[in-house]
Amino acid sequence: MCGVLDGATERGCRRWCGASTSQAVAFGYEVDSNWLTHFWIRLATLGRSVKAQVHTHPGEAFHSPVDDKWPIVSQAGFLSVVIPNLAMGPSSLDTAWIGRLRPDGTWVQVSSAAEAVLL
Ligand SMILES: [Zn+2]
pLDDT tens, 79-111? Predict the structure, then answer.
């Protein structure tokens, strides 16, 4: 799991997220809860936050019921991006599923990455 940090560069994101420990489970992985706790503490200490989550699926990009139910942040406006084909395609968000969490806890798919960043 890799959170996008306010003002973080790609290198900064890798530094933050690369230290993650996780355990593979059927059809996904679980992020180590101790790592996640330290991640939240580091974010709070630095006054940063997670605005989006990004992950990939082996085939089509979509938001699964698990994705719907367990976002890393459950705050309205939070973004989720799912990259298709294990992110083995072109470096583009054109085929990604991009959604925004609504105040009622449901997700709405946005039409493009550009729409996602315009709040
Ligand atoms: Zn998913």
Answer: 999 999 999 999 999 999 999 999 999 999 999
> Within this chain, do residues 26 and 66 fall inside the same structural domain, yes or no?
no
How far, in Å, from the CA of 77 to the mean position of ligand 1?
Answer: 18
| 101 and 80 belong to one structural domain | yes
- CA 65 to centroid of ligand 1, rounded, Å: 8
What's the gap in Å between 32 CA and the centre of ligand 1? 18
**How many structural domains comprise the chain?**
2
Q: Quote the pTM value.
A: 0.76
Cα separation values, 88 from 2, 21, 22, 57, 59, Å: 17, 23, 21, 10, 10
